[in-house]
Amino acid sequence: MRIFLFLVLGFTLLACGGPRSAPPTAGSGFPAAIRPQFQDADPHPWDGPSPNSHAVHGIDASRWQGNIDWPRARQGGVNFAWLKATEGGDVIDPKFRDYWEGARQAGVVPGAYHFFYFCTPAAVQARWFIANVPRQAGSLPPVLDLEWNHRSPTCRLRPDPAVVRREARIFIDIVTRHYGQRPVIYTTPDFWDRNDIAALGEEVWLRSVAGHPSKVYPGARWSFWQYTSTGLAQGIEGEVDLNAFAGSARAWQGWLAARAVR
User: Fold this and answer.
1) 209 and 190 in contact (C-beta within 8 Å)?
2) Full 3-state SS string of 208-227
3) Which letter, b or e, does each residue of 96-111 get, where b requires 16 or more Cβ atoms within 10 Å of its Cβ?
4) What pLDDT score does 48 carry?
5) Per CATH, the architecture of 51-259 is what?
6) pLDDT for 62
7) In this predicted model, what pLDDT tens digit does every residue of 7-43 receive, in sequence order?
């Protein structure tokens, strides 16, 4: 198995504390950033900027990650966790509530994402998300996950780009009114290009596992980068998606102060 280890540049004492030590905090009141001690089961040979050039990392997770030891994950450099909450208008991830509370108690900033289903009206999906995701102060803003699901047994509809953007705006507007923060949009290269997601003008989280976002999404301004689906992190059995925040540890605190749910 090929693996790589990010250099631990700081926060060493924090990372080496006992398994149930209190989460460290920054002056802003949000948890202080810890440098990651991640590995990768199938690392990409980065040509140009690589993930370890970024200071703040986290994960996204769904039920497929099984039981997560959140204090260990936090000490290993998981600073934030986007958690699958809902899909369509009637599906909730069975691990969502446990993950949310476990992450929060360990000092990992939690956030929820909704996997959009193109055969259900956006307003129905927004109300389903709101019914299942708490409006909890200090959590990450909601995420709208826009991508094609070619494996769906019930819906393989691919609407025209104008319809995609219209439905996205409906979801975004309803969710924004409830949580007081505009959702971040997660998407993939093919979906971004085909549907002109940049035209929505929203903050984005981009999947790019074979190149830096600056190459895969030319000109895009992004806040989060999903750089691998084969990550290995403390406290998590098996592989997990790893993500980097675009700015420095100080910028992360500023972003949280501006974008966390109140």
Assistant:
1) no
2) CCCCCHHHHCCCCCCCEEEE
3) beebbebbbebbbbbb
4) 81
5) Alpha-Beta Barrel (3.20)
6) 98
7) 333 333 233 333 344 455 665 689 999 999 999 999 9
Nearest to 40 by CA among 220, 244, 187: 244
Q: Hey, what are 179's tokens?
A: 């949580």
**pLDDT below 50 — which residues of the chain?**
1-22
Give the residue carrying structure tokens 């420095």. 248
The tokens for 178 are 């409830």
CA distance linking residue 180 with residue 135, whole number of Å = 9
CA 232, 49, 24, 100 torsion-angle sign: negative
Tokens 């074979």 belong to residue = 210
User: What's the pLDDT score for residue 24?
Assistant: 55
Which among 224, 253, 261, 254 has a CA at the least distance from the CA of 51?
224
Residue type, 128: W
The pair of three-digit structure tokens given for residue 56, joined into one six-digit string: 């703040």
Taken in order 11, 13, 18, 21, the sign of the CA dihedral is negative
Residue environment code for 34-56, b if the CB has 16+ CB neighbours within 10 A, otherwise e: bbbbbbbeebbeeeeebbbebbb
Q: Which residues are catalytic?
A: 60, 147
Q: Which two tokens stand for residue 65?
A: 């990650």
| φ, ψ of residue 215 in degrees (nearest 5) | -95, -40
Neighbours of 1 (CB within 10 A): 8
> Domain segments of the chain: what residues?
51-259
What residues have CB less than 8 Å from 87, skipping those under 6 apart? 93, 114, 115, 117
- Locate the DSSP E strands across 106-223: 109-115, 143-146, 184-187, 204-207
> Whose structure tokens read 């790019």?
208
Both tokens of 169, joined, read 């705006």
Contact yes or no for 52/99 (Cβ under 8 A) = no
Amino acid letter for position 48: G
